[in-house]
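CORE FACILITY INTAKE
Project code: CF-77B
Contact: R.S. (postdoc)
Sample description: multi-component assembly, two entities in total
Requested service: structural model of the whole complex
Turnaround: standard
Below are the sequence entries exactly as provided by the requester. Do not edit them.
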Amino acid sequence: MSAVEKRLGWRKVPPGGAISEAGSSALYKTGTWRSFRPVIDEAKCTKCLICWIYCPDMAVRRINDGVEIDYEYCKGCGICATECPVKAIRMEEE
Amino acid sequence: MKRIGLTGDEAIAYAAKQCDVDVVSAYPITPQTIIVEKYSEYVANGEVDTEFVNVESEHSALSACIGASLTGARVFTATASQGLALMHELLYIASSLRCPIVMGIANRALSAPLNIHGDHSDMMGSRDCGWIQIFAENAQEAYDWTIQAFRLSEDPEVLLPSSINIDGFIISHSMEGVEVLEDEAVRAFLPPRSDARAIDPNRPLTIGPVALPDYYFEFKRQQAEVMKKVPPVLERVCREFGKISGRRYGKFQSYGMEDARTAIICMGSAAGTARHVAKALRGKGEKVGVVKLWLYRPFPADELVRELEGLKSVVVMDRAISFGAPLGPLCSDLIGAIYGKLPKLKVMNAIYGLGGRDITAKEIEGIYREGLRMAKAKAPMVRVKYVGVRE
């Protein structure tokens, strides 16, 4: 359990902000930052995985033979939509 | 204990040598250069077991010091003026990451115009950076404070960086007889550093992660609180140092304060001149005193209020200008400290000595005379006066 989730007060936060447990970034849900959400049009998607390669936050996940967006972490940068060669991803306002 | 001739810079270097420092990273800048020059001689001569990291700037010097400090090493550096300004962002990182680095600063004016001489503008520009800031009056104090600073900084309750400030050239380059401790006495006073948080490959740690609006404030609030732990630890360190050296330090040093009507509050080399003048005036029956501040950050507000009780007026001497502010930095701090507690005290802020301009005994006598005149005034007042500048 990390300090990120516990929302510790100033008396409890670790001095100097040092983190002794690995993987705390996974506990930090950045999806709330998003103002535009990428939506995949399954009919157009060719499953080329270009979006999966380009996503800087690993928020495009592989499922079965295709991909899905992990909205808990996707910040809505739109790189996937820009890079998609068949325009299968559109950015919708949140 | 023996007495040797040392300049202020050399006294700091000599103290650091005896403190068994593991890592020094620094970049030369006048009037600090001799500190690290001397220290590099100790390294070259094999007199110390120190890794001396040569770098291309002060920004890199303090960066290297921070990295070294996080591994648990005892770290020392030195700078002045533009060099301190170039370190600015790292100053905050060093204190925020709780690195007990000790730094000698030979205070010097900031450009422009270019000036290499002493004033407090450099440190005052960095006064909010979260470091413990100590001002020494002479080479002896610089030596003594450097040793005490390591103990203070490395105390598990504190873990904050310290700066030991000496007036550029006036102290940094003036030679004095300095009583130095035996190496063994310093070793006994300052055992090797141990830090439970030190970086260790077997205990991985993330240092300096991001903290956004949901967390940053808590870290800063904690840092503000840590500053409050400094004064009691400082008292303990000074008491123990007094036992081995016979020289007793604290937050400030007073002269003639038992019956003073007016007093000068100052830091650094001007204190000696102020005491000299106060002594002469007291000989003529004038009730004047001097409070020389050693500890500037954290500011000993409550103790100063107690010290100033009974005074009619006080003159706060600032060797720096806070441009656009109503008062000099030290005077602003003092007004904040006395607010509501000493409502009748009249305050004069004397701004003096910029760019190494001498402050003379005659000028200080004039300041005292003005302080005594103000003491007679009925209503409280705050006045700013520039001393020693041509109109």
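Facility notes:
- Chain A has three helices and four strands.
- Helices of chain A lie at 3-6, 50-54, 79-83.
Invoice: internal transfer
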